């Protein structure tokens, strides 16, 4: 049986890209603007109502992320036409991208699902994942799930990131023991 490989906390984040609606490429984990960290939210796709709800909720925390110096990027394996249709249900202003490849999903150690039917979607898709990459390009915080019901609570996450980013706290990357 093949086993998925999980990224280790503290490792350099892999160089992976997805595509914005304007056709430009975006590098996962590369903060934009004034931010020095980036939170990469992997979501299941347009077919998932819980993803729609979570992304819309994420919009309301955008300032809290910005205050902590953390940029937001959301990415799925959807095709361009699926993201365009999904945007009709989303009220977001943060960057969102499509076309996450199955290879990229495996590189990130994400759980990958097969659609239950053609009505759900027409491609394999990643279950939710969150990768927070620090200013050194290292994986600082990671959270992956095998279903849409388990995701970080955004209030606790943004408060935690603000605490981690406070230099007075000297908070290291956690979970780095090799075994």
Automatic annotation (TrEMBL):
GO terms for molecular function: peroxidase activity. It comes from the Bacteria. Keywords: Oxidoreductase, Peroxidase. InterPro entries: AhpC/TSA (IPR000866), Thioredoxin-like_sf (IPR036249), Thioredoxin_domain (IPR013766). Pfam families: AhpC-TSA. Residues 7-166 form the Thioredoxin domain. This is Thioredoxin peroxidase.
């Amino acid at each position: 049986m093949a086993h998925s490989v999980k990224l280790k906390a503290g490792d350099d984040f892999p160089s992976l890209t997805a595509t914005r609606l304007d056709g430009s490429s975006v590098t996962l984990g590369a903060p934009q603007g004034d931010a020095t960290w980036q939170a990469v939210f992997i979501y299941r796709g347009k077919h998932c109502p819980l993803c729609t709800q979570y992304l819309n909720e994420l919009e309301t925390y955008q300032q809290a992320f910005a205050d902590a110096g953390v940029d937001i990027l959301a990415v799925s394996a959807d095709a361009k036409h699926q993201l365009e249709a999904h945007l009709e249900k989303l009220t977001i202003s943060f960057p969102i991208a499509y076309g996450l490849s199955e290879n990229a999903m495996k590189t990130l150690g994400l759980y990958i699902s097969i659609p239950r039917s053609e009505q759900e979607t027409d491609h394999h898709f990643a279950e939710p994942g969150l990768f927070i990459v620090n200013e050194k390009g290292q994986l600082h915080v990671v959270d992956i799930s095998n279903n849409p019901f388990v995701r970080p609570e955004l209030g606790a996450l943004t408060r935690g990131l603000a605490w981690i980013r406070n230099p007075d706290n000297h908070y290291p990357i956690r979970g780095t023991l090799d075994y």
